[in-house]
């Protein structure tokens, strides 16, 4: 008998079997007459029992073993006495009585606890990430991630997709973020860009006739990071030819219905759909969380002629007054209300004002400025009942939507209105093709410049670009954007027109995207696709609160790896070879 058995696989059916176990010491206790060691391997943990009187050589061999030492034990599987059964442990009905044992590898005292409560700082845990990865939750999450990726590949294979790798050393693809650049040694002053997405390559693969491409692809975006971003992340990237929106939406719904059950989440299909403008108006977000109400109402017409200047002026300037009702929140404290106003200000609004329905009376935060009829009108539109509070924001439409969207989430959390046993999937559709940037005085693509405009809006592209809607779609779950894509432009002339609308000159288009424009002149099929954020999908499936919990070696919010200390300075000779000079030198 020299074949290894997995500790975590043992159960009462194996009683009496002799097994060889190898793994890490998860805990150990020495009671003199008897020693216990919990041994952990990739499948779980089992209790090993050593009787020093009967097997002194085993006791001696393992006496030195401490937490996280690697040991080997041979022994017999025995049933535990009824009072010793541990229902917290998957193997809690059994134990292994050791007949021999030895140390395979010693360990220094670990700086990061592997079992039990997290005891080290975030920095230490990231520095010793390989130890933290021994923790059960991270093991579970990364194995879940593996199974999700596997299931996606199986599903796509069944649907006729081929997984094709695209280059990492490439040219910039405009997805709206900064590029990571890699200097070329061979070509002086020339740089590769790491891909922000495989967008152009996957479109070219459609021109090549693959018709269905998928890739679990690493993408790189040099952005100022927030807690839920990583500079490199993984997309399930796919593209299909001879399809329209319906085909792609149905494909993704089918994929989600396959993968989410791996985490016990049922996915009712088809998903509801909501045009972007409606999502912004009713929920103040392009990725609304539909697990709860708190729907935003437009109140502009009610207060357009109001004696309250802030409302009247906003309406006169073409802005909006909007708000939503929080049931039962009429007693909100001053501190909370101040916090909400501050949140609204952070989103660019002038503030947020309360309207309370208390003791049968309507109380607006600013006294004596609204007529009783206006108060009644607002309360009616907001369906404000006794005990409720409404929050009102006045401002330009975009700002009011953003502020109210943020407040809606904040109040849902504050009043515990988000059910965590339910999930809400949604398609957001009918995006504007372009977004006007005040500061730069130009249009930017809402998605990327290869997104097709709606057929009916083609004429507007030159005359009124801001009014053009795109054939894009985003898939949203519980207020998180899980992915987005579009039907693409497959006509060279339309693509050239789209570049023009973005203020990209013919020369620049030729210089940066000539290969795409050329490809579109050689029999490009109608095509479209989508990219899904695998990290975020697995995070939501695992019920984790951070992307770091589903990525083996994540980076910090300042894009560094605390374990390898990347990014790091390099040897001056390397710089010289690349024709680069350090600004420090
Ligand atoms: N390339 C797009 C992105 O990374 C997705 C797509 O249009 O397929 O967001």
Structure description:
By secondary structure, the protein is α+β, with helices and mostly antiparallel strands. It is built from 17 helices and 22 strands. It has an eight-stranded mixed beta sheet with strand order 6-9-10-22-21-20-17-11, with helices on both faces. Strands 1-2-3-5-4 form a five-stranded mixed barrel. It has a five-stranded antiparallel beta sheet with strand order 12-13-16-14-15, sandwiched between helices. A hairpin with a 4-residue loop joins β18 (434-437) and β19. α10 (334-346) runs antiparallel to α12 (397-414). The chain is globular and about 95 Å long. It starts with 17 loop residues before the first strand and ends in an 8-residue tail after the last helix. The protein binds aspartic acid (ASP). Residues 175, 197, 199, 484-486, 529-531 line the site of aspartic acid.
